[in-house]
Amino acid sequence: MTGPLSRGCVLLTGATGYIGGRLAPRLLDAGWRVRCLTRSRSKLAARPWTDRPGVEVVECDASDVERMTKAMRGCVAAYYLIHSMEVAGREYAQRDRMLAQAFAAAAARAGVGRIIYLGGLGEMGDNLSEHLSSRREVEERLASTGVPVTVFRAAMVIGSGSASFEVLRYLTERLPIMVTPRWVQTESQPIAVRDVLRYLSACLDHPETLGQTLDIGGPDIVTYRQMIHVMAHALRLRRRVILPVPLLTPRLSSLWVHLVTPVNYKVARPLADGLRNRVVCRDNTVHKVLGEPELDVKRAVMLAVGRVEREDVETSWSDAGVMPGDPGWAGGQVFTDRREVVVHADAQRTFETVCKLGGEHGYYEADWLWHLRGVMDRLVGGPGLRRSRRNPRTLSVGDALDFWRVIQLERGQRVSLRAEMKVPGDALLEFEVHPLADDNDSQPSERECLLVQTARFKPRGLLGLLYWYAVLPMHGYVFRSMLNGLKREAEQPPKQQG
C-alpha cells in the first residue's frame, strides 16, 4: 500500500449513507485524501473516521453546480453515491436525473479525471422496472459531459444495515409462514458489501476501468426464496413456509414490506419493483481486472447477522437522506410541553439512560401507547416504531430512532429528536441534563441532576391545530410517565439495569 496521504484527493458524495460511510475509511487506509461533499457537516461529524488526517468536509447541496465545481477542483476522481428514492418519493427518478446532470457538469468544469458510480444490475431492454430504468438514466447523465465514468452494477448488497438485508432479515424473523409475490422465484446474484467496497476502492489503481461498465455479483445465483431459507438458518430459525401467489403487485408488496419491516414504502416500492427483473451478471470482466468476489451468499449473510447480534453495525440504510436541523420555529404559533424532574444520579448516568430510548428498549412507561402510535403511523405511510437504530445504547447525529431522527447531540448534556412520523406540522423532542450543585458547595454534584424534557410542535394549518388539541390529553400522561420512567431507570444501581 502506498504511504499515507500520498496518492491524491478523491471527492466522495454519500459519505453519510450506507456505502459511502464505509468506503471513506477504506480510501483513507489506501492512502487517499477524501473530500466529502455533504448537506450536513454536523451529521458527518458523528462518523468516527472524520477526524483522521486527509479528511476534508465541504457542506454543499448536490444540485449547486457552482459550489460542487469548487469542491471538485484538484480531485483525481469523484464518487457518485447519491440516490434520492427515499427523499423524493414518486419523483425520485426525475430528481436523480437532475442531480446526476449537475454532478457531471461540475466534474467537467473542475477537470476531474473520472466519475465512479454504483448502479443497479439487471437485464437490458425495454422491460426494466422504473427503479432500474432510473439507474440507467443516471449512468447516461453522468457520462453526458465527457468525463470518463466507471459504472459498477450490483444486485442486492448483503451487509448489516443495508435496506435489502434488513427487509430480508425482518421478513424471515417475523413471518414463519409467508404469502409472497411471484418475484420470490426471480433469480438474482447478490454480493457482499465487503466485495462492493473492495471493487469501488481498487478501481482507482486500474486505469483500464476508465469508461467501463462492470457487472459485479457474488459467486451464487439464487432466488429470493432461497435467500429467505439462508437467512432463517443464519438466525437459527426453523425453515420458513413460503406460498407464492400471483396477486401481489409491486405496489401491494411494498405496502406489505412497509408494515412488516423497518423499511418504509418509499424505499420498499422501487426495491420490490426491481425484483421482477432477473438481476444476474452478464459477464465477468471485473474478475479479470479487479479479482473475484471473496464471499458467497451463506458466508455474507452469516457475517452480517453476526454484526447485528454484536451491535457492531458500521452504517445503516436509515442513516441516509435529508436531515433538517431544528425546524424553523420562528414565526407562527409553537406549542411547548416542558417538564423537569430531579434525578438522584449523576448527569452522565442520566444522559446514558436517555440515549437508550426507543428501539427494543422502549419508552420506560406507557409502551403500549407508543406502539399504538407507531401502528397508526405505519398505516398512513410513516416509519412507525420498527425502524432499527445502529446501536441500542448510544446515539449520534443523524441516527434514526423509531420515528425520530437525532438532529443535535451534546454528549452528556443534550439530545434533540425531530419527528419523522406523519403529523400535520413539525415536532421536536429534546432532553437536557443539568448537574446540580451540592448543598453549601458551588461544585456540580455527583449524586443528582436536573432532567428537562421539552416537546415542541409547530402546527401546519388548521389540521395541525386540531391534531395538537386532540392529542393534548394523552401528552399529560405519556410525557409525564416517560420522564418518571427515565428517572427511575437512571436511579437504579448499575447491576440492576438491563
Low-confidence stretches: 1-5, 322-332
Q: Give the termini separation.
A: 45 Å
Overall number of domains: 2
CATH class of the largest domain: Alpha Beta
What's the number of extended β-strand segments?
Answer: 19
Order of strands across the main sheet: 3-2-1-4-5-6-11
Mean pLDDT: 83
Structural notes for this entry:
The protein is 37% helix and 21% strand. It has two domains: 9-318, Rossmann fold, CATH 3.40.50.720; 323-496, Alpha-D-Glucose-1,6-Bisphosphate, Chain A, domain 4 (2-Layer Sandwich). It contains 16 helices and 19 strands. By secondary structure, it is an alpha/beta fold.
List the defining traits of the structure above.
Alpha-D-Glucose-1,6-Bisphosphate, Chain A, domain 4; Rossmann fold; 16 helices; 37% helix; 498 residues; alpha/beta; 19 strands
Topology:
Elements: E1 9-13, H1 20-29, E2 33-38, H2 41-45, E3 55-59, H3 65-72, E4 75-80, H4 85-88, H5 92-110, E5 115-120, H6 130-142, E6 149-154, E7 157-158, H7 163-174, E8 177-180, E9 187-188, E10 191-192, H8 193-202, E11 213-216, E12 222-223, H9 224-234, E13 241-244, H10 250-260, H11 265-274, H12 285-290, H13 297-309, E14 335-343, H14 347-354, H15 367-379, E15 400-401, E16 404-410, E17 414-419, E18 425-437, E19 444-459, H16 461-491
Parallel strand pairs: 1-2, 1-4, 2-3, 4-5, 5-6, 6-11, 7-10, 8-13
Antiparallel strand pairs: 9-12, 14-19, 15-16, 16-17, 17-18, 18-19
Helix pairs in contact: 1-8, 3-5, 5-6, 7-9, 9-13, 10-11, 14-16
